[in-house]
């Protein structure tokens, strides 16, 4: 039976070559499902953007988390239980997926950064979302993806970065004057020490284009994830409400192991720092956002 490891009151996975920064307990699984809803709203009711064929036969979901993405897919696409042919494989280093799934879907306990055992030229579409603190070597992972995609297949990465942004000057630019700016800076330093920089998504397009994918097809779309419901736009206001709940309820899970391991903080220091971040997250005067 698979068992995790409890540290500072949170449950972490012990599978995989490298240490993963986030927990795998029920609170974290609820956060992941909340993020699925948040991204669905952000992408205007789309799960992915790649112009894949209407009937892909083999799909790989890297870091599938709770496995909810297949069940939330609307009828007519491959993850629907009513769809006939396709094979969908979801892999993760934490066995947190449901037991009851459509017959064309299965989950595997697997480390995506270890050598792949599937046949080459096998998948029509490979998808990954929020591989934060998960991937130490994206070029190596992209090489594996390239070998295992069929000619004409697509890969899509989606992820927020931990680099806080503000376009109108409402958020103080100096980390010493803003808890959110300080959070962003500490995330940058800690994640680099952890071996999984939070700004890696900014390098995805160049890595993809440089390792065999067609340059005209390697597209990058940047979206704004508000930290609270400050936007006037109703869709972004909803996204901000999701993200505010994410930060208020789950900030400890996102920072505890990372700051303890990489920065040498105590659990009490992490809690005290997060309290300041939460105060700013509640303040709609700060028009801050994460790029996705």
Automatic annotation (TrEMBL):
It comes from the Eukaryota. Pfam families: Methyltransf_23. GO terms for molecular function: methyltransferase activity. Belongs to the methyltransferase superfamily. LaeA methyltransferase family. CDD domains: AdoMet_MTases (cd02440). InterPro entries: SAM-dependent_MTases_sf. This is Methyltransferase.
